[in-house]
Every structure is written in structure tokens, then in C-alpha cells.
Design brief:
The chain is α/β, with parallel strands linked by helices. The protein is 41% helix and 17% strand. The protein is globular. The termini are far apart. Bound molecules: iron/sulfur cluster.
Length: 285
């Protein structure tokens, strides 16, 4: 008996942008060396992109460690109204560990100095955010797997889930992007990932009546937030179901014909279209 397929918002997005990529990444189950990137599904095509992705992973690790420490009461809790920078030591240790794990350089502008700037970026974020009660932290890197309205299983991982009222939850995604490059608050309720999170939270924790979501720009130290009414979230997930059904019946798995999605494709070395595009557009001499 084969295990039921599990979908995710990013798989839906992948199929929407390129059915061939969705097939290569999720059905064939083979990952090429270039697919082994720090951010799942995204391969760095240039050294700059690779560094950007790694820095996102590293700052994420620092924030995750700080919230885990806040929950686990790693040391006496700060005063009420204290800031998350009380857990800066855990965050900085996690940053350094991720730095080493990802093989980032130790010295120079791209090494020590860059490491310091990430530490200070994460510290600034922590210094702005209040320490939640440990019991208010419902999850850090918390996986939710729930059935969609048509019974398909779908999975998502919440960066941070906070209880903000007796029946209200806030979901936060850390983004190492500028605020201007994030969706606007009016767009968030229909964002594929955010809507799915709001849907999954309501199913996983039936006591929740209100879900808000936020994309937190660690570069600008500000968050875009929005309430996501359940009917809106459900409607977006029904759209995922429709697309997933189409994908499951798709035997052609066509590539995106114009190559517009190929630059960051994690499986492009296995794609005949990419090989052809490379041959047809050789690097200028
Ligand atoms: S290289 Fe381009 S066409 Fe091929 S799978 Fe990736 S995104 Fe699709």
C-alpha cells in the first residue's frame, strides 16, 4: 500500500508555475545535486543568490532559537513587558551554529563582518518584540497536516504560532526581505501559504475563532499583518484542491514554455527544456 500523497502550498505554487517542475520535485522523488539547497525548492543560480538564501536560513535559526528558549524557560523569564532580546544569547549561538553548518566564511567582509550584521539584525528584531507567556507560544517551527475540503492531505510548517486572545491566534512567518517586497496586508488573506495556515489552524485547534497572519520583515523590523476570515481561507484551499486534482491527473507535465520560471528551478539540470535553453542561449563570449 502506498502512502497517501501529501500536498503543500509550495507544491501547489510549483505546479501553477511549472507542471514539469512539480513532477520532477514531488513525484519522481529524485533530487539532483543542485536541488540540495538550504531553502527547499530553490536553487541558487549565482553566488549572490546562494548567500542570500543562506542568510535567510541563518537569521531564521536565530529567531527560532530565541522563541524556543522563551518557551522552555531556558533561564529565568524576564520581567513582564520584557523584550525577546533577553534570549539573545541562544539566538546568537544558533546563528553561529547555522553559519558553520552552511559553510559560511569565517573572515573578511563576507565572513566575520557579515556574521556580525546578521547578529545585529536579529538582535534588533528581538529587541522590538515582547516576550510572550510560554503557554501563549503554541508552536515554533510547528508542522500541521490537515485534510482539505475534498479530503486530500496538506502540510504546512508555521514559523511561530502565538495565542493572542482566548480564542485568537497569530501566525508569523519570518522573511528576510524588505517590507516593500512583501505582499500588502490586503493581499495576505488570499496568499497561498498564509490562507492555508489560517485554514489549518482552525482545523487543528477547534477552539480558535480568529486567525491573523503576519509576514515579518527582519530587514525593516516591521510586520505586515491581516486577519484571515475562515471562509476566505477555505476558499483559497479549495482552489489548491482544484489544482492538485488537475496535477494528479496530468500525464504530460508540460514545462513552462518560455523559460520564465527556470532561473530558480531546483531540478533544472534534469529538465530537457532547460538543457535546450542553455544550448540555444550560450553565454556571451
Ligand atoms: S527548468 Fe524550467 S521548464 Fe524545466 S522544470 Fe524547471 S522551471 Fe520547469
Amino acid at each position: 500500500m502506498t502512502a497517501p500523497e501529501v500536498w503543500s502550498p509550495s507544491r501547489v505554487l510549483t505546479y501553477r508555475s511549472c507542471p514539469r517542475q512539480e513532477f520532477l520535485r514531488y513525484r519522481r522523488g529524485v533530487h539532483t545535486p543542485t536541488a540540495v539547497a538550504e531553502t527547499p525548492g530553490v536553487v541558487a543560480s549565482t553566488p549572490e543568490t546562494a548567500t542570500k538564501l543562506r542568510l535567510g536560513t541563518i537569521s531564521h535559526a536565530g529567531l527560532e532559537a530565541a522563541y524556543r528558549a522563551a518557551v522552555e524557560r531556558a533561564h529565568p523569564q524576564p520581567d513582564p513587558g520584557g523584550r525577546m532580546s533577553a534570549f539573545a544569547r541562544e539566538a546568537m549561538d544558533a546563528i553561529d551554529a547555522a553559519w558553520d553548518r552552511l559553510g559560511m566564511p569565517d573572515e573578511g567582509v563576507d565572513g566575520y563582518e557579515l556574521n556580525l550584521s546578521i547578529q545585529s539584525e536579529v538582535f534588533d528584531v528581538l529587541a522590538r518584540l515582547p516576550v510572550p507567556r510560554p503557554s501563549a507560544v503554541l508552536g515554533v517551527e510547528h508542522e500541521l497536516v490537515v485534510p482539505t475540503p475534498s479530503g486530500r492531505m496538506m502540510r504546512g510548517v508555521l514559523d511561530l504560532a502565538l495565542q493572542i486572545g482566548h480564542d485568537a491566534v497569530h501566525i508569523r512567518d519570518w522573511k528576510r526581505k524588505r517590507l516593500r517586497n512583501l505582499p500588502r496586508s490586503t493581499e495576505l488573506p488570499r496568499d497561498d501559504a498564509m490562507a492555508f495556515y489560517a485554514y489549518a489552524v482552525r482545523l487543528s485547534w477547534p477552539w480558535v475563532k480568529r486567525v491573523s497572519v503576519g509576514l515579518y520583515s527582519t530587514l525593516d523590523n516591521r510586520e505586515v499583518t491581516a486577519d484571515v476570515p475562515f471562509p476566505v481561507a477555505r476558499e483559497v484551499v479549495i482552489g489548491h484542491d482544484v489544482l492538485a486534482e488537475k496535477a494528479e491527473g496530468d500525464r504530460e507535465n508540460r514545462p513552462t514554455p518560455d523559460g520564465s520560471n527556470c532561473t530558480y528551478c531546483s531540478v533544472r539540470v534534469d529538465c530537457p527544456l532547460w538543457t535546450r535553453l542553455e544550448i540555444e542561449s550560450p553565454e556571451p563570449a
